[in-house]
Amino acid sequence: MVRPYLPLKALRAFEASARHLSFTRAAEELHVTQAAVSHQVKLLETQLKVPLFTRLPRGLMLTQEGELLLPVLESAFDQISHTLERVGESHYREVLNVGVVGTFAVGWLLPRLEDFQRQYPFVDLRLSTHNNRADIAAEGLDFAIRFGTGAWHATAAQPLLPASLSVMCIPAIAARLNTPDDVLGETLLRSYRADEWTEWLLAAGLPRSFPMAKSIVFDSSIAMVEAALQGVGVALAPPLMFPRQLSSGALVQPFNTTVSLGGYWLTRLQTRPETHAMACFREWLLTAINA
């Protein structure tokens, strides 16, 4: 497309002046004189044949035309700046947006990110954490790592890691737990999935009818395990994601019984074509998991 002449210096001068509503402050930002900024804005107004500012005794006020032009320029300059950052140092940097359930992020991914960065320096990785409720389309994510059974509407899902749940608590509480039904005398820490403790108790051999203990519900396994570390109660969480707490002895697993209600999955929209950065991240993730 053939574009008309774009007076970039004048557009920059106008955009800075419009943000500050001051030629003087715009000049300071652009490292030029106030007269130079005023001159460039006047040239732009002459080219457009409309005034962009109303000159006031103290400062400036945008005209309707100026109010129309400012957000367009702000967006365009932001996109240019962002693209220049990605291109940086003569090689293209590809942005990759990944949403990760917090437990997997802290327990598995973060300790290994240095390796990913070393292998794929061109990928500009943007991580956000969630509590297992991710809207890939609305949040603009390339991938979402989440816990479940792999069944999400309009989503392609690849299994990553199993995540069997086990009872975990501090040693002082574990000393009171001689048999599985003893947990019913403690505060049960659980996620928003109400069936987790029921399934574990059944797997541990308790009859289907048992008195439900008092419980506290968390939207994050990280917060739940932190509560367990502080002696609030007994957590039901995936030991695979909390190796440091278990290896240090801060938490213990008083029973061998585990229950599997899902695992961790790498998901993306079925309609989302896989970019080079996405392929690199997926391959690295699977290689690291299977190592």
TrEMBL record:
Q: Which UniProt keywords apply?
A: Activator, DNA-binding, Transcription, Transcription regulation
Q: Which Pfam families match?
A: HTH_1 (PF00126), LysR_substrate (PF03466)
Quick check: keyword Acetylation in the entry?
A: no
Which parts of the sequence belong to the HTH lysR-type domain?
6-63
Annotated InterPro entries: LysR-type_TF_proteobact-type, LysR_HTH_N, LysR_subst-bd, WH-like_DNA-bd_sf, WH_DNA-bd_sf
Decide whether keyword tRNA-binding is in the record: no
Q: Which SUPFAM superfamilies match?
A: Periplasmic binding protein-like II, Winged helix' DNA-binding domain
Q: Which family does it belong to?
A: Belongs to the LysR transcriptional regulatory family.
| Protein name (database record) | LysR family transcriptional regulator
What organism does the UniProt record list as the source? Vreelandella neptunia
